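thoughts on these tokens:
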Amino acid sequence: MGSEKDNIRLIKKYPNRRLYDTKGSCYITAEGVHKLIIEHENVVVVDNKTGKDITRGVLMQIINDLEEKSPRQMFSNEFLAHVIKSYGTEMQNTLVLCFNKTLDLYLSQTNAQEDLIKKSSKQMNPSDYFNTIARENISRWQKSWENLKSTKK
């Protein structure tokens, strides 16, 4: 079994702003990087000249491109302004924890929902199903909130 490092899809960014996929031995666009991520590839982008990891910048650019193309943006101007205002303040740490916990909760909930649907699709009516999910969500949020409060002390 290979290590996580073996599973990294290395993309090199050259001074001419072109991206080179070392696994595919070809140039790739930001849209191509986006497709790799959708396909669950573990992508790392490095500046070819300096060796510096520039993955975050490339991912942020992909998000920006998606936001511009989308008929319904994920990040409102107000949301982005609040995030910007939080940098360098105590709120920054709280937001990082909140964002990570929320994403973890969402992903675990998605997996739990899929399991629940498989188990109960023939046994549970829609009302019972949504009530079960709602109770589980409340429980998860309460646990997350308690964890968040305990880390701030």
